[in-house]
Design goal:
single chain, 303 residues, alpha/beta, Immunoglobulin-like, Collagenase (Catalytic Domain), 2 domains, six-stranded mixed β-sheet, five-stranded antiparallel β-sheet, 4 helices, 31% strand
Amino acid sequence: MLVLFALMMWGMSALWQSFPTESVAYGAFRANISAGLPEKSYQFYPNMRYRNRTITYTMESACTPKKQQDIAKALGMLEARTILQFKQGGNTSEITFTCADLRMLPGNQEHFVAGEGGPLDLVNTTRYVVILSGQVSLYRSEQCDTPVLALHETLHALGFDHSKNVQSIMYPVSECQQTLDSFIVQQINTVYREDPLPDLAIEKVTARAQGRMLSFDLNYTNEGLLDVQNVSLVVSADGKVVKVASLMSVPMGKRRAYGASNVLLPQGDSVLEFAITESNDAPELNLENNLATLTLSPQKTAP
């Protein structure tokens, strides 16, 4: 009887300790979305790039042999000075070179950010502004020995804005003596330094507990250059795993939300850790932004 009574008392004590009593709040986690972005950029938006360092292109048959030669020379100059490579492709090429005057066609005014070349389709992943496709129009004839026009418009398609440097190839008014300056070369080599990989990141977490029962809301995103199909979330309290969940896939640049309630916490004031990963342990651009740590807020009482 004494043993039975002791077991009953222990069970009641454990039940009482897990029964919701005091309501407590945790300090919210918010990611620094500007981390990793350059302080100064020569592009329309910071960190504009195509997914891969090898960029596919196509030239319309209407382009004369001279203009095709200018395009090839311009791409060769970029390959010689940067880590980029260019490869001729088919209908799915990323950059299309045309020799028609696209400025006069209805609906094209919004496509070109500057000049007669520019990005067409963009995806903002926060870490990058990914260019899915670009277009260059070379309807004007080249007057220089070097392919100044083709290089200028190709750089627009790579996301580069006009420069205030008169000697730069990106000065608004083209002159034969202008060159591919080192600032542009450095920017290209920096933005294409990383391999095309995904990058899961936790953007925001809020959590609250009623007694030992935890509820939380989490926002996550894919800031990388590839889609993520299988996502896992592990929630730990004081180093002990309290919940594991499979989350929705995340295409490049997309954001998702997930929430849970009635997650049993261990006794004591818990430090919460949220870890989000690709289920198959595929490599990512950055693993530091996969973690979020929450501690009890100073007031400890939730509204």
